Amino acid sequence: MRQIIIFLIFGITSFVYSQNNLIIPDTLSGTSFNLNLQYGTFEFYPGVQTNTMGTNGDILGPTLIMNKGDFVDIKVTNQLDDTTTIHWHGMHVSAANDGGPHTTIAPSETWNPRFTVLDKASTFWYHPHLHEKTNLHVSKGIAGFIIVRDEVEAALELPRKYGVDDFPLVIQTKTFDADKEIVVPSNSDSVVMVNVTLDALLEVPAQVVRLRLLNGSSQRVFNVGLNNNKLFYQIGSDGGLLSKPLELTRLQLAPGERGEILIDFSSAEGETVYLMSYASEFPNGIYGATNPGVNTMQTLNGYSPNPINGTDFNLMQFKVVSETVNPVKTIPTNLVTVTPLNESDADITRDITLTPVSMGANVLNGDFLINNVSFDMDVINYTIPLNNTEIWSITNQSPIAHPFHIHDVQFYILDRDGTIPPPSEQGLKDVILINPMETIRFITKFEDFADDEVPYMYHCHMLTHEDRGMMGQFIVVSTTDVKNGESETPEKFELSQNYPNPFNPSTAIKFSLKESAFTKIQIFDILGSEVATLVNEKRNAGYYEVVFDASNLVSGTYIYRIIASDFASSKKMTLIK
Ligand code: C2O
Ligand code: CU
Ligand code: CU
After folding, report:
1. Hey, what domains does the chain have and what are their CATH numbers?
2. Does residue 362 have a pLDDT over 50?
3. Mean pLDDT of 493-504
4. 290 pLDDT above the threshold of 60
5. What b/e sequence results for 509-545 when a residue is b if at least 16 CB atoms lie within 10 Å of its CB, and e otherwise?
6. Measuring from each residue's beta carbon to the nearest atom of ligand 1, which residues come in under 6 Å?
7. pLDDT higher than threshold 50 for residue 196
8. Which ligand 1 atom sits closest to the C-alpha of 459?
9. For ligand 1, what atom is nearest to the CA of residue 457?
């Protein structure tokens, strides 16, 4: 009897505690997308309007669903009265299409990136990236998901019905002032929300459900788990699926990181399950732990007291309801083939340090440097040859963990302080949390896109740090000089005009070698993505005509590049269908 009474009291308590149905962003799919950045108001608290910023609405933005291989055309119109940018976090696009701090969109202007989706199926996101204002624009509400699909993923038995058994969840914490306006920047972020819903409740079917988790917070790290340490399965990291589902009870997500997980609710109909952050398990030195610095002397203004630092708290809850038609009921055994780059393939190792500007009690509120310098829009920190394979060895010499992020590429982690990373970190990544005094090495290849002018960024994804200069930039340059014209054409090699041009559906590239040479012919689209390799072998002296069949390609300008030994030349041609 007594047990029943206690049960009732608990039941009533949790019933009185108000739950809000999880907001699920609308989707946009196809190949042309219109995004309008705008001001809005949003009711985080019943009856109170908070000023916000959003994409195609008051806050957050639609989920963009893209297919690998599609050529997408995006129009981003800035209806704010502030300049901003939109960056496709995690996607492999040219620097000009990347939406970094140099690619600004002035008020009432429209920016029109167009690119081929080259990424593997995964969960990416878009957010503003204006230098010194990224935190403001993101915290006020601009952020959206990008789901890339591909044939490999489509062939797997995974949940993929958006909003039915496949849910995007952006986890954020924010600070509100007495008028319930969002405070930026702030270390007092105690309000937890998922898809901007406080105390969110989601009904899920009693089957395998897929969650695409994104930490969209400015600074806070989450240690995601289910109540009662219920198992879940990680299937993807930032840039793609893992080789097989990993059985886990915790998944750490730093700002900017994504993780796709499966939860098997098959035998849980009627139950309530909580998604939590087990922040009590964080060692000091992680934003979210009891102390954000490794040493208790190091404090952040406003960080304490904060009821969620160093404690376990709910992110949201699931109510398990009846299953859908054609439910996925099992966790697959295998996913995709993951082929990490080999350390021996690296052309170069870059040593990078993360340091505070000054030590002392206030260090965590200070500025941080990368290689002893603060970000300068006019300084290119690295010039990277196209197709370089590089190891970046990053040492955190500061007392707080930093989520390091790089644009353009996905990387593989070689080691953390010399130890191979946990399986969860063995897939493709674009953000990695580097603990205080730790060294992380990753390997990546800078492929496909070169641009002498527009740089890509690397930075700390704690937006307060990024805005205050914890960022650097690199350009990727083509090693062979492939400017137009015959000037580089030596006597040993002769390239004549291709014919016909314009063409449909095929044309031929004519060249002659006066002596044998390793010869390569690559075709690029106008944005610099390689669409074909026609020749890649040693050829004897002689005259050649190599046919380029474009019957599967869309109308437009293409560039062919021919390399013979050390000599390279490139030309434009036009496909008109
Ligand atoms: Cu998510 Cu450089 O950004
Ligand atoms: Cu990014
Ligand atoms: Cu940082």
Report:
1. 343-477 (2.60.40.420), 489-575 (2.60.40.3080)
2. yes
3. 80
4. yes
5. bebebeeebebbbbbbbebbbeebebbeeebeeeebe
6. 87, 89, 127, 129, 256, 405, 407, 457, 459, 461
7. yes
8. 2
9. 2
